Amino acid sequence: MNILEKSLRILEEYPLCDHCLGRQFALLGHNLENDERGQAIKLALTLEAHKLTFSKDREGVKNLKILATNGFSETAAEILRKMRKRVSSKDLPEKCFLCKHKFKNLDWLAKKALKELEVYEYTSFLVGIELPVAVEEREDEFKSKFDVSHGENMRNEFGRVIGKKIAEYSGKTADYKKPEVVVLVNPFTEEIRLQINPLFIAGYYKKLVRGIPQSKWFCSNCRGKGCEKCNWTGKTYSESVEELIAKPTLDATGGAKASLHASGREDIDARMLGKGRPFVIEVTKPKKRFIDLKKLEKNVNAYAEGKVEISNLQLADKSFVRKLKKAESSQKEYNVIMEFKDKITSEALNLLKEKLTNVIVKQKTPMRVLHRRADLTREKYIYEVKVKKLAPKKAEMKIRCQGGLYVKELVTGDEGRTTPSVSEILQNKAKPIKLDVLNVIMVN
Ligand SMILES: [Zn+2]
Ligand SMILES: [Zn+2]
Prior knowledge:
- By secondary structure, the chain is α+β, with helices and mostly antiparallel strands.
- 36% of the residues lie in helices and 25% in strands.
- α1 crosses α3.
- The mean pLDDT is 93.
- The site of one zinc ion has 8 residues, from α2.
């Protein structure tokens, strides 16, 4: 059956708007919209029907009536008027069988979406379409009934047409992979929902003081609700690296929430020095994306008052967060100051250097974190240690090792759970009194 015959058979049974008729042949012809296809088919059918009226009057009129009613064709209606043939008003369908004439609303819907997007900065967007199940089922049945093999589904067409309009009116680009905003449109209920994708800002942070956790630390007693124990703050520590970076970031972006992802974490009582630790701050629902990163860096550093310092800010994306987590096991450099029970000799320190360079350390989960981590044995590699005596019972050790090594336990031995250890090698009880992370080496 050719396109015109099939279309006439469809229209005989169902009223269809130009979009919905044209969509059944969407794969035929390029650079055409479905309504243009539908219009062309209806026009060709109308001309054929008109021609028929000159020879086979009855069939011609019958087809013109189909086109004037179920085809919503003004041309067909006009020809019938001129022929003084009446179409009874009860034959006039109200709306398109498939879309209920919702394609007529698209311009209005696109403008409504743009209005809601006004408060957000973005360069790329994607349109998502939500359809009632019944509508999609109706279309599926319709397509199998008429054996539609070169068509497109309604969801696609709605998305494409609205997307085109938004792009045209806003000058922004449709992006299917990493859109900054997703506009979810339900053409049937005429509802619009916006999904504002997060903004990721990467950088390095240094923690220049001890006693601050990396992320917001909820009170274990009330789990953040606020209780007497935490002085109604909901937190165990009044500030964190995360919060010190988050506040100015939220001020700059107008986001709803900012959370920190980093490549590993230092202990609360350890500083993070050197170049700093790579991090990404994820801002949810940002209103502003075109931000001055130099200014943000300055604002964070001013706000953190020397406790935390960030540098090298740049925009990143979600994949960078995965990269950060992966880098957790790459190399780290630490500096630890140790205090010994007995006096130490320089021979002892040389021995330490020898026994802890290029060695695999076996660590059972430290007792101090056993309550929240599974009891496992980890093997971590130490590339190099350097040791320096500071006082008769004090020494400083620099360690370059695989990330994830528990340095405090490397010193104490954690009652035999970490081996080898400083205490074990020297047979002299050692404890860490100051720990700093010097560098987190990120391998891309
Ligand atoms: Zn329609
Ligand atoms: Zn509390």
